[in-house]
Amino acid sequence: MNVRLNYILNYFLVCTFSAFGNDASISSSNTGSSPKIVKIEKQVDLQNEFVKSKIKFEDKSLDCKVIDETSLDESALNERDLVISQLWEEFPELSHAWQKWQSMHVVIKDWSKSKQQQLGIRVSDTILYPFGGGDVVFPISFFPDFKELVIVGLEPVGKAVSFKARSGIAANLAYLFSHGNFVTRDMEKFAKSGVSTVIYIQIKRLGAKKIRCIISNSMVEFDFILNGISRKIVYIKMNLDDKHFVTWACLFEKYKDYTLFMKSASFVPQQPGFNKIKMSLMSGAHVILQDDTGISYNDLRENGYYIDLCGAYYLRYTIVGLEHFFQEDLKEAYDEVKPALLPFAIGYRSESVPSNIMWAYKFDSPKIEAN
After folding, report:
1. Block mean pLDDT (10 aa), the chain, length 371
2. Taking CA 100 as the corner, what is the angle to CA 99 and CA 106, rounded to the nearest 5 degrees?
3. Are 262 and 294 in contact (CB under 8 A)?
4. 3-state secondary structure of 148
């Protein structure tokens, strides 16, 4: 685990200095223009700077917490399960929301499998979930056979898996299970527990075994077995705007083949200042599953995606600040296709307002072979 984390951290550093090559680095002016590729004349000096920065980076940022349940006996494991069960007993709203999600989980899983077969697409083993906060249960519902789930968000990682802020943890999880997303400002109130704790609770509640976890200041990684499959979940706290291009570009360079999943994304890919991440996501994903808060319908069409619309789309959001993101061309497409309503609610839509979701895919995406 430590080796892998060091690899990723070092990878970020190498990218920062080398900008995807051995003989170039990235620099940008103060005017906010796009980064430029600058030829490096003195490789030795660059290497020295990398070594110095690596040492400085590790000294100040590599403050890790490790959880390893593979070596615990049954009694110790039962004790941890009991702590989580007590959360459900102590907070009825959490128990109720969990039951609601469990019912929806089966429906979503069957719907997703049927749609993939209908469209003739196969999702990747790696699911990339930008703007996903600490949500694990919904990507697991849509992609139950995933091998690696990579989530990027602004929610705090947390210093350790901690149950001290029990009421806050329960409230955040209950909101996720019932509404389908976290509220970033609410998660920030419980920064010590953070995403690490809510992910741990989710996978434990789902029945994960042999959990190994390592937490640093900016990321957390879980390795575990669920339903007989070895899996990995990585959460990285990172700003994906154009100003932080160098940092997140290194991350996405690492993940070459992924299925993209987005929901309740605050329309970030449609906002000014996020054009680079939008284009990067489309260049790397052959299959996308998203609601209308992800990449715009027009951008998907212009970049060669075939789109399968699901659910309904006809009302503007009543959430303050999101009203103007209504897509007229998407509404026209829905009016023409008239797809069936979804058998579940997802995203910012409430149960009283039908949800929308769409599959976007390219012909060069992996196809399901006929039996």
Report:
1. 47 37 33 33 34 31 65 83 90 93 94 96 94 93 96 88 84 86 62 81 94 90 96 94 85 82 93 92 93 96 96 77 86 95 83 85 58 38
2. 90
3. yes
4. strand
| Residue 150, token pair as written in the block | 């990579």
Q: Supply the range of the domain harboring residue 22.
A: 1-62
pLDDT, one tens digit per residue, over 315-345 is 777 666 777 888 999 999 999 999 999 999 8
* CB-CB contact of 194 with 165 (8 Å): no
39, 123: one domain:
no
Among 123, 141, 119, 120, smallest CA distance to 286 is for 123
Same domain, 217 and 100: yes
- Tokens found for residue 189: 């109130």
Q: Who contacts 6 (Cβ-Cβ below 8 Å, separation ≥6)?
A: 58, 62
Q: Which residues of 321-338 are buried (b: 16+ CB within 10 A; e: fewer)?
A: eeeebebeebbebbeeee
Q: Same domain, yes or no, for 35 and 138?
A: no
Residue found under tokens 């990684």? 221
Domain co-membership, 147 together with 53:
no
Three-class SS of residue 39?
strand
CB 345 within 8 A of CB 298: no
Residues 291 and 167 in one domain: yes
Residues 216 and 91 in one domain: yes
Structure tokens at 305: 């995606």
The CA distance from 133 to 187, in Å, is 9
Domain end point (choices 29, 45, 62): 62
Q: What pTM value is reported for the model? A: 0.79
